[in-house]
Amino acid sequence: MAAPWRAAGSGLDVATAVCAVLNLAYFIDRFASSGGDRPSRRVALFTLALLSFGALAESVVLLAYAAGGHPQPLFDSVQWVAVRLAAFSGTACITALVLSRAARR
After folding, report:
1. pLDDT of the chain, 105 residues: tens digit per residue
2. Are the C-beta atoms of residues 9 and 81 closer than 8 Å to each other?
């Protein structure tokens, strides 16, 4: 029973990392080309890039830890998957906004 939860959590971490990479690339590109924008917009772009980097880093660390054979009760619980689902959902929502905006450009 523990293995399906671990696999589900790892799958969510991979999906979160993919979304975070897309978001980070988009926000870095927008930040780099936003020289004439208002300072508040540049700060927002930087903040979103930082948030995306944080989500990516968290996912990579958790994936590395899970792959390292360090069995922890945390990784075998429904609560861990719920936390990973929350992180993925937030990152995926930002990705949806990014892809929507990019499609209109």
Report:
1. 467 888 888 899 999 999 999 999 999 999 999 888 888 888 888 888 988 988 998 888 788 777 776 655 556 667 678 777 878 888 888 888 889 888 987
2. yes
In the chain, domain spans? 2-104
Query: Is residue 103 within 8 Å of residue 28, measured between CB atoms?
Result: no
Instruction: Go through 20-44 and write b for each residue having 16 or more CB atoms within 10 A of its CB, e for each that does not.
Output: bbbbbebbbebbeebeeeeeeeeeb
Task: Reduce the secondary structure of 14-74 to three states and give it as a string.
Answer: HHHHHHHHHHHHHHHHHHHCCCCCCHHHHHHHHHHHHHHHHHHHHHHHHHHHHHCCCCCHH
Q: What is the pTM of this model?
A: 0.73
| Residues 74, 4 contacting (CB under 8 angstroms) | no
